[in-house]
Amino acid sequence: MKNLLNFLPVLCFFLTYKLAGNDLIMATWALLISTGVAMGTYYAIYRVLSRFQIILSIVLLIFALPTIIFNNTDFIKYRVSAVNIILALTLIVIQFGFKKDIAQVLSGVKNPIPQAVWKKATLAAAGFLVCCAVLNYVLAFRLPDLISGMTPEAAEEIWVNYKTYGNGILNFVFVMVLFFWMYSKLTPFEKQQLENLMESMTGKKLPRNGAAAGDSSDNDPDHKKK
């Protein structure tokens, strides 16, 4: 249900844009209204809203309302870049400015990943977000200048497609690569701690392989006695 509510605004934005004849103003209306509905439904069901959800909603208002009021689509196009820059700055400031583990700040649970590894991952994530912000800017405003014969209308459609699923795919691939890189840097005991944490947060049992079983047995006093 959570995933459906998170995806609802994106789906409404994309479908409205296509059904309304590539009308980005109408799509922005749909994004704004569906976000309000999704947030209200989420709160009604779970009785809580995360700081992240609240911040994203505020950023949406900042960029969506001027888009509608001034009938200028540039505002909503800047939103993706703004969100990525805000997230990148947040990662850097919390991790290196306040010297706090952002994973622990957000989840309230001790992060089993060593700080040396986590700091490198934080820098990589911040760099990736900045790259995404630049990519969004290029797709939103510079395609006609870079590609001969590209019309503003065609460029806008490419940006809408990127915003709807391209950006999400890039984020998913990056997160998977970063996770497996961090996992490869952990000791067997740290891997076990991370798996236990993920199971407690998701409520799902992770698949165990022979290596994992062997790792856990190395830390079992009874196993060593045998």
Describe what you observe in this structure.
It is a single chain. The protein is mostly helical and 226 residues long. The chain has helices at residues 2-19, 24-46, 51-69, 74-97, 102-107, 115-146, 152-184, 188-202, 210-218, 221-225. The chain contains 10 helices and no strands. The longest helix has 33 residues, at 152-184.
Q: What's the average pLDDT? A: 86
- Cα gyration radius (Å): 21 Å
- Through-space gap between termini: 47 Å
Strand content: under 5%
Helicity level: over 70%
String of helices and strands? HHHHHHHHHH
DSSP helix count?
10
Q: Which descriptor suits the 3D outline?
A: globular
Return the structural class: mainly alpha
Low-confidence stretches: 210-226
Largest sheet: none
Write the layout of secondary structure elements.
Elements: H1 2-19, H2 24-46, H3 51-69, H4 74-97, H5 102-107, H6 115-146, H7 152-184, H8 188-202, H9 210-218, H10 221-225
Helix pairs in contact: 1-2, 2-3, 3-4, 4-6, 6-7
